[in-house]
Amino acid sequence: IEGDEELLRTLVDTFLEISPESMDKIREAIAGGDPRTVERATHYLKGSLGTLSASNAFRTATDLEEVARSGNLTSAPEVYRTLEQDVALFREALQKVAEETDQAGS
Description:
elongated, mainly alpha
């Protein structure tokens, strides 16, 4: 990604588009008591977070993935709330970067 602003912008735009869907899928799987779907959906989101170097959200996603892998979702709602906060903060930062990039390109 280093130096390739077009690729970075594509990744940012894709994350901003898909992350709400991913978070919804995780939340619904937790509510439905489906650890396998929680694990898969969290793993998918974690990949995007890692690619974009979102270290706090990545660590929290790793924690949630491990909870789901254990098959016991008792602590999942609490970990999900932390992930939700981390992802929201990261999305805000990405949106600011995207807006600044748009303004610089104008």
